Amino acid sequence: MLGRGLKRKLSDYEENMAGLSSRQLVLNMCLTKLQTYKMLVEPNLHRSVLIANTVRQQESNCCDLRSVEDPIENSLLIVSDDDMSSAISSILKDLDFVEDISPPTCLVPTGDDQPKFSENTGLKLEDDRQDLKGAECVFGSFEISNSTSYLKDLAIDDIFEDIDTSMYDSDFCCPPLMPPRPPSLATEEPLKTFPSCNSSSASNIQICRTDLSELDHIMEILVGS
Amino acid sequence: MEEDVETRKISSSFLRDHSYATEADIISTVEFNHTGELLATGDKGGRVVIFQREQESKNQPHRRGEYNVYSTFQSHEPEFDYLKSLEIEEKINKIRWLPQQNAAYFLLSTNDKTVKLWKVSERDKRPEGYNLKDEDGRLRDPSMITMLRVPVLRPMDLMVEATPRRVFANAHTYHINSISVNSDYETYMSADDLRINLWNFEITNQSFNIVDIKPANMEELTEVITAAEFHPHHCNTFVYSSSKGTIRLCDMRTSALCDRHAKFFEEPEDPSNRSFFSEIISSISDVKFSHSGRYIMTRDYLTVKVWDLNMENRPIETYQVHDYLRSKLCSLYENDCIFDKFECVWNGSDSVIMTGSYNNFFRMFDRNTKRDVTLEASRENSKPRAILKPRKVCVGGKRRKDEISVDSLDFSKKILHTAWHPSENIIAVAATNNLYIFQDKVN
Q: Which SUPFAM superfamilies does this UniProt record tie to the protein (chain B) (predicted)?
């Protein structure tokens, strides 16, 4: 890292950004192609595998580069990696539709990366929306993950402590919650389902998390269709 | 490469014979039969069109037999898979002829899921004089029949009929990319992305699975099968290629399931050529045994390679098809052209190999002289009976008069499918929905 007071040369910065942007460009093209494929009639397995391998290869390159201590580079890439892995997993699982009819996994970030998500997604979303075409569908999924992390981070009790929901107590725990940016019609329903989550037992929070994954999946379908 | 006289020897004596414009659909496969008398094409609409070579005319000895339409039939129809709610395309992926054993012709045609055996036969006689029905086919009043007569065969206009004799269905979960008839003429194989099945022509309700590369967990999938072919003489040997640029040769005598290869052909990667797209461009799109059975030829995105079956660690010959595209890989990835699957073919004597490229160009490589040539299949640039002029792509710097620059290439005009007559210098080139047939100039 450069010392204090020393100006960083423009050429260094540009080189970093140029090298970064070509990799980023390819990564984004990969994600776009993978996303589009979910909507196609029947995904071409050969193509999907090639695209997924390209992404994996770049991920491993990114891991090599992480040893370089450049905060900009790291922050821009961290967000990509986990969603790439999730995207690849979900795509390949989707392709296994005949012999194993199990629901596809959804784009949920791992627990470790949530703090970083809230810090860095803002930066990434702003930069890339302006620059890259095709970023729209890429970041559609990023937004979902983002909202999920919000829900997980916040103590659910705090939001709703002023609502008396005792009459809505139900036998089963934590039916799926709606995301914080719902259409107006859906605002009624979530209130009814919150009461069981008010109890702050650990098991309920755990179950909430599972249902948030399902929520993610539902949102993904809604956004995707 | 200089356009000298030597180059013209391989190929420029080819002149354009016909072009057939099939208006509706893109040609998806082209194949000569074993004698070269018939040429079959399959298209995206599930149709098969067979051309037959005319007998050479004594009146016009300077003209070789021309190919005319012999039969047209609908091989596959679009289907709907109700379980997956997906449409199954009727596009014909491959056609393979069986050797002729009687008056009829047999071929296999396949779409993504189903292989069919078709019999193409001629009818030029018709029985006349039935007892129970009259010439229009209406039943005769039995009380009016007073005598018995024997129907006689009378000549009629030639009619060519195609009938489906076998349907081999429901054996492939993934998309069929290859079929190959075994040299025993009793069995054939069909290969999809992850599995290869062996069929007996007589049995349609079962097949043997001989290769299965599907991982237990689909998330671990990193490689698919891209092409497969039987050895031309050894009925126990076949090869299959993968999306990672490898070829495996298998011997069916070793075990029932040939997941373990007998030979493994792979060229180590050149580190200086490494890029984001190295793996994608190494994916093999076609593999073909030479007629001799000693070599295999593979096509990946930028090159054609010839391998000696006895040497697994590298090919014996590598030919650059369109290396000028190497710097354009990112754009080609963006517009999906990098996934185009080009085929490659040997000539009858295994001395020349041919493959397609973009802008309706196709390339020929003479293995003996090491000369190569680029030709174009288009009506605008070649008149009938005119000798094809070699084309040249200009990479950079000054562009000469007849050269075309890389940036002017039309990537929507791609030649993926070509065929070479088994014994003569006649080639068939499919350019989107046009079929071109080029013949060697008769001296």
A: WD40 repeat-like (SSF50978)
Predicted confidence (pLDDT) per residue in B329-374, tens digit = 999 999 999 999 999 999 999 999 999 999 999 999 999 999 999 9
Mean pLDDT of B180-208: 97
Chain A CB within 8 Å of residue B8 CB: no
> What single string gives the DSSP state of each residue in B163-190?
EEEEEE-S--SS---EEEE-TTSSEEEE
In the DSSP assignment, the letter for residue B102 is: S
- What is the C-alpha separation between B353 and B373, in angstroms, rounded? 11
Quick one: how many helices (H) and strands (E) in chain A?
A: 9, 0
Domains of chain B: 77-120+168-439 (2.130.10.10)
With vertex at residue A64, the alpha carbon angle to CA A63 and CA A66, rounded to the nearest 5 degrees, is 65
In chain B, what is the greatest distance between 2 CA atoms, to the nearest angstrom? 92
Q: Is A60 on the interface with B (CB under 8 A)?
A: no
Of residues B222, B333, B334, nearest to A53 (C-beta): B222
B120 and B50 Cβ atoms separated by less than 8 Å: yes
Sheet holding B344-346, edge to edge: B344-346, B352-356, B361-366, B372-376
Give pTM, 2 decimals.
0.71
Q: B23 touching A, CB under 8 A?
A: no
CA distance B197 to B192: 9
Tell me the two tokens of residue B78: 């679009």
Backbone torsions φ then ψ of B24, nearest 5 degrees: -70, -50
Decide if B243 and A49 are in contact by the 8 Å CB cutoff: yes
CB contact under 8 A, A29 and B334: yes
Q: Any idea which residue has 């060697």 for tokens?
A: B440
For residue A44, pLDDT beyond 70: yes
Tens of pLDDT, residue by residue over B275-331, are 889 999 999 999 999 999 999 999 999 999 999 999 999 999 999 999 999 999 999
| Contact assignment for B222 to A95 by CB distance below 8 Å | no
Report how far residue B62's alpha carbon sits from residue B54's, in angstroms, rounded to the nearest whole number.
14
Q: Of B95, B89, B140, B130, nearest to B112 (Cα)?
A: B89
Which pLDDT value is given to residue A144?
A: 32
* Helix, strand, or coil (residue B353): strand
B414 DSSP assignment: B
Q: How many CA atoms lie within 13 A of B331 on its CB side?
A: 8
Q: How many A×B Cβ pairs under 8 Å?
A: 67
Coil, helix or strand for B248? strand
Helix (H) or strand (E) holding B71: strand B67-74
CA-based angle A136:A138:A141, to the nearest 5? 105
For residue A74, pLDDT beyond 50: no
Distance from the Cα of B428 to chain A's closest Cα (Å) equals 27
Strand B195-200 with B208-212, pairing? antiparallel
Q: Give the ipTM.
A: 0.85
Is A96 touching B (CB cutoff 8 A)? yes
